[in-house]
Amino acid sequence: MTDSTTNPAALSRTETEASRIDVAALAREVARHCAAYRDPVPRLALRQVANTLLPYLAVCALMLWAAAYGHQLWVLPLAVPAGGLLVRLFIIQHDCGHGSFLPSRAANDALGRCLSLLTVTPYDSWKRAHALHHASTGDLSRRGTGDIHTLTVREYLALSRWQRLRYRLYRNPFILIVLGSPLNFLVLHRFPFGGGLPWRTAWRDVLVLDLALAAMVAALAVAVGGIGPVLWVLLPVVSVAAWIGGWLFYVQHQYEETVWEGPEAWDFHRAALGGSSYYVLPAILQWFTGNVGLHHIHHVNSRIPNYRLQECLDGHATLGEVGRLTLRDSLRCLGLALWDEDARKLIGFSGLRVAAGQAV
Question: CA 223, 227, 231: angle at the middle one, nearest 5?
Fold first, then answer.
């Protein structure tokens, strides 16, 4: 019998397994460090609400005034900072869903539900789906809830020609992000599908928000003299925020050196640290996006509020080294679409021929 010392393939497997164990051990050590930053700081939380919500409402009021008085050319440029502020409000709602933004669970839920009226995202449904995403990130056997649908090379090769075409269309960046992100927030969130909640609970959550949105839009329409100015503000602002949010969610897990494992090898801490990117953004963009680029830390410990993520990053050298993506690096992620199980990385359709040869 040939043992692993003379069998290159067996030796390679042994080295890979040892590497996984080492990374998992490091991830657990990092998780212990992150646990020290999980306590909310009410002073910082309230300051973040004030410096985000008040400017957002002010910019939207200015946009409504401009649209109502025929100055539509002012509206679209203002949709950019308003959309950025809406992303920041979404991050606050996101933290409330994790129970991390404020010390009180009731206060988190109350604030999160109020903000859902601005983010047009059902609070409880999204919270549940997002929790499932955190619990299954990087697990090939639990794809499909709160993530971007990703096939392996073998799965793709087993598809029919029509199924391959559908997947290629879905993974096209224009369809996935430019069209898909606004469609998701403006239309799909109006229905209780795929949220992970029981059917009755999901309907109640979504229906209450839809009715509240309708009442808000109607009240604004009465105030400014018609529905036109309201839609002229609402649609561009939500679309800009959706494009930013869709892109961020994409690069947080869809980068070449991310981590995917089968259920037998999957490890929560290793998948959290190795399967989520550290998106290195300029300070102004990091502010508008509520530190969400420090996504590897968020997955290691989702109870850390966004306003403490930078402090946590600065406290451990490893956190500044793993999963780094610059703005330039992130553009290369656009072409990635398939998980190559042999090379253990995401590849694009252009690399399918080489990967397919290895998969046979």
Answer: 110
248 Cβ contact partners less than 8 Å away, ≥ 6 residues apart: 87, 279, 289, 292, 293
Give the span between the Cα atoms of 14 and 35, in whole angstroms: 32
> Following DSSP, what letter does each residue of 139-168 receive, concatenated?
BGGG-SSSS---EEHHHHHTS-HHHHHHHH
Q: How far is CA 53 from CA 59, 103, 135, 231, 252, in A?
A: 10, 20, 30, 20, 25
Which has the closest alpha carbon to 251: 320, 332, 184?
Answer: 332
User: 133 near 139, Cβ under 8 Å?
Assistant: no
Q: Fill in the amino acid letter for 275.
A: G
- Which residues, 6 or more positions from 131, have their beta carbon under 8 angstroms from its beta carbon? 97, 196
pLDDT digit of tens for each residue in the chain (360 aa)? 444 444 443 333 344 544 555 777 788 889 999 999 999 999 999 999 999 999 999 999 999 999 999 888 889 999 999 999 999 999 999 999 999 999 999 999 999 999 999 999 999 989 988 998 999 999 999 887 778 899 999 999 999 999 999 999 999 999 999 999 999 999 998 887 755 567 777 788 899 999 999 999 999 999 999 999 999 999 999 999 999 999 999 999 999 999 899 988 888 888 888 889 999 999 999 999 999 999 999 999 999 999 999 999 999 998 999 889 999 999 999 999 999 999 999 999 988 877 666 554
Place of tokens 């939380």: 45
* Encoded tokens for 168: 């290629």
- Nearest-angstrom CA–CA distance, 98 and 91: 11
E strands, 147-293, where? 151-152, 278-279
Q: Which amino acid is at 284?
A: I
- Give me the residue label for tokens 């993530």: 147
